[in-house]
Amino acid sequence: MVEVTLTDAAMMRVMAHPMRMRIVGSLRLDGPATSAILARRLGTDSGQTSHHLRMLARHGFVAEAPERGRGSRGRERWWKAAHDSTTWAGAEGGAALERAARQLWDLMAEQFHQEVVHGRWSPEWFDAAASSDRVIRTTPEGLARLHDRIDQLITEADAPGPGAETVVVVTQAYPRRRQP
């Protein structure tokens, strides 16, 4: 799995745009596409998707997919996600980095909320889907170990085969400060 960790506020701001996040998500989940295919998938126009694809490519989030060819007229430009996963840090990079990281958190939460609200699943998948919250007490090192263990379990659960479908796993863990 190829993962990118964003540690730069400018890179975070590039991703902190709803259409760009949707484009990268679609390329990861649904596979390579042209701007026209993405426009149909995302309910927009190919001019918008082309603009955002160029920006994402300039910053290394997407790459051309020449293995898909160039179409019957040699003009199609296929794109694919450059990474399987994106993470980011923000606490130790100053105020600008923290603001950019918070923008990404907000946008990501909204995107996943929309997936859950508008998702249509069979009864079996509905029963298997889960969302929960747990409160624990730990240290930053303990939380990092927990995240590593969760990643290991996710990797072990990835088992393509009969009946398997694409499943999005979202993890969030953050300290809670009491409000005065």
From TrEMBL:
<dbReference type="InterPro" id="IPR011991">
    <property type="entry name" value="ArsR-like_HTH"/>
</dbReference>
<protein>
    <submittedName>
        <fullName>Helix-turn-helix domain-containing protein</fullName>
    </submittedName>
</protein>
<dbReference type="InterPro" id="IPR036390">
    <property type="entry name" value="WH_DNA-bd_sf"/>
</dbReference>
<dbReference type="Pfam" id="PF12840">
    <property type="entry name" value="HTH_20"/>
</dbReference>
<dbReference type="InterPro" id="IPR001845">
    <property type="entry name" value="HTH_ArsR_DNA-bd_dom"/>
</dbReference>
<feature type="domain" description="HTH arsR-type">
    <location>
        <begin position="10"/>
        <end position="102"/>
    </location>
</feature>
<dbReference type="InterPro" id="IPR036388">
    <property type="entry name" value="WH-like_DNA-bd_sf"/>
</dbReference>
